[in-house]
Amino acid sequence: MKKLIALMLVLLLCSSAMAATVDWSSMTDDEINAEITAAQAELESRGVAAEEPVEEGYRSLQKGSKGDEVKALQQRLIELNYLSGSADGDYGGKTASAVELFQSTAGLTATGIADADTQTALFADDAPKAKVYQSLDYKAMSRDPDTYEGNLYKFDGKVVQVMEQSQTDGTTLVALRVASKGRYDDVVYVIYYRGSGEARILEDDKVTVYGTSKGLYTYETVMGAEVTIPMILADSVTVK
After folding, report:
1. Is 132 helix (H, G, I), strand (E, B) or coil?
2. What is the pLDDT of residues 23-76, one digit of tens each?
3. Separation between Cα atoms, residue 144 and residue 164, nearest integer Å
4. Nearest alpha carbon to residue 161 among 216, 204, 207
5. pLDDT in tens, 139-184
6. Is residue 52 part of a domain?
């Protein structure tokens, strides 16, 4: 549509009669480009500078929007792992949630509405991809930590111990021991930095952890025994 509008403007500069003879509805993109090139050449032959066609800005899309623009938006969200399924051209709740997640990742205000700024960032070559977290397999990770180190994982569990240490930059280093299967079963060592004003995690909290495997962590118990457990550097720890 944008190319078609640009072509009409160029042709009108050349001759209104020319524009009237063009069958816009049946033209392919390649044919449109060819017509634009021909029209620009004619303008240049008359000594008139032929400007490049101006693209229209993005139209804001939100819940209830439908059509090809929504479909293109969904296809890009799928490509970047923010949306699953197929692009149906219908801006529903899943699409709005995917847009909101992208906005948060890209440092934009998370509204769920795909405004011009959001779409510009989304279709950029350097648009950030969504992180995809796998379910944590405790036994497999404990048995072969090198294979899993650096991968993204998520798991639910119960906090059995909390340790905190204030940092000079105002954040707090938090270390948690989280039982992924009940009380003291399959414990994972979780570390993250808590920002100023963020809520604390407490013992017995039921949490969901998202983070990166950092191999194994070994610590000494009060009885002097060494215990080795999987370690996760958390992106987020949320109370359920």
Report:
1. coil
2. 656 666 677 667 777 766 666 676 655 554 444 589 999 999 999 999 999 999
3. 29
4. 204
5. 999 999 999 999 999 999 999 999 999 999 999 999 999 999 877 7
6. no
Residue 188, domain member (yes or no): yes
Query: Is 27 within a domain?
Result: yes
Domain that holds residue 190: 134-239
| E strands, 35-130, in order | none
CATH number at residue 100: 1.10.101.10
Tell me if 32 sits within 8 A of 1, measured CB to CB: no
4 SS3 class: helix
Say if pTM beats, i.e. exceeds, 0.70.
no
DSSP state of 23: -
Task: Mark residue 112 as left, alpha or beta (left: phi above 0; alpha: psi -120 to 50; beta: remaining).
Answer: left
Alpha carbon distance 187, 80 (integer Å): 33
Residue 188 tokens, joined:
């994972």
Q: Are 62 and 95 in contact (CB under 8 A)?
A: no
Q: How many domains does the chain have?
A: 3
Give burial (CB, 10 Å; 0-12/13-18/19+) of 189: buried
